[in-house]
Fold this protein.
Amino acid sequence: MLGNFSGRYSNNVPNLDLLLKSWNGEPYISDRATRESITLKKPYMSICLACQSYVFDSMINNSAFRGSGLISRFMYCFPKSNIGTRRYDTQPVPEVVSSFFSGAVAVKSLLIRFSLFWVSVSAFVIP
């Protein structure tokens, strides 16, 4: 997504106007020669990214993002890694839970089959 704003499809010319204006609800107007204009009176945007570190690095190192002030408009969170902390000595799933889940899956399967059957039968019904 950020690649599109940084110019992926516009010959590497960044178009950050909408992102920057939607930070504080400033009006946004997009005038294009090939289509009708788009006007947003009070645009607001929320962005939540859960990404790999290389995506974050490319965003931070993008000169257009840094120079425009876009980077400073995000709140960053770097949670502690859980790699290597998974427990393998956990208790098995109780039999009651397992049988309930199996029953629920079976009911869902029957409902899907019934709905497909109903669609195929109703296709041949002549009013």
About this structure: Strands lie at 28-30, 38-40.
